[in-house]
Amino acid sequence: MGMISARRWIAADFGGPEALRCVEADLPDPAPGQVTIDVRGCGMNPADAKHIAPGQDRSLLPLTLGFEVSGVVSAAGAGAGAGLAIGDEVVAEVSGGYTTAITVPAPDVQLKPPTLAFAEAACLLLSGTTAAELLHVSLAGPGDTVLLHGGAGAVGMSALQQARKLGVRVIATAGPDGFELVRGFGGVPVAYGPGLRERVLAAAPEGVVAALDTVGSPEAGDVSLALVKDRSRVVTIADAPRAKADGYVFIGASNPASGPYRVGARPRVIAMAADGDLVVPMAASFAFEDAPAAFALLTRPHAPGKIALVRG
Fold first, then answer.
1. pLDDT tens per residue, range 82-119
2. Pairing mode of beta strands 249-250, 4-11
3. Confidence (pTM)
């Protein structure tokens, strides 16, 4: 097939949307065990902004951006089978996902749930597998009541839906604009801010057996520790230093168990979406060419839901 040319967004410097540049890149044919994806949706996550945050080693520049995509298989190397064929609609977690095409190992590629459009599918895996790990590590099970900090965030909304499927009752913190979303996914919303502990106890007089923190605020840590007896069932994705200091659990890149667990959770998250049990609320979709504007929205308060770049 020969080289194809892809366009990709890179960060030429550390900072925000002003650092983004669109460049051309040649993409070789996929090697054995690889597939090339014609990207239709580029998922955006807060991790993208952290990836290019100021204060890092300048020798790392330029940096690629984006950790998940959806699209169509356009080429496959020898032995890349694994149920994939040219023309299949797929999703994948990647490095450098703000691109028009990408070549990745075939085992990292999953068939796209037909229930989701490309924009939604591009935003499914990172939040979905993170939420799955939060619930798994907290040992949440049928009949349990748990506290979720950040119920209207992307990971929070996925956790609410997965908890409902497990038979777990969730008390979820949110701002007033997120209450309806939390209720829609089966959670009981409570406002964050002073008096949170009392509001949680009023909503769950039986108490909460675990806490899932997607926020990382001092309040989230304080209230979690005040209400959950077993610190191994307090789990955060947002405050590693405090988790270490106070003896509860941080999950994420620095936890060696997180990567393998999340890879294993991908098929379950995709199956839930395919069955209609897991939706991906969208805040906004932008044309691929408008990545800087999308990135600007990503880094400031916006309506609940995910942001994606879309093509064609």
1. 679 999 999 999 999 999 999 999 999 999 999 999 99
2. unpaired
3. 0.95
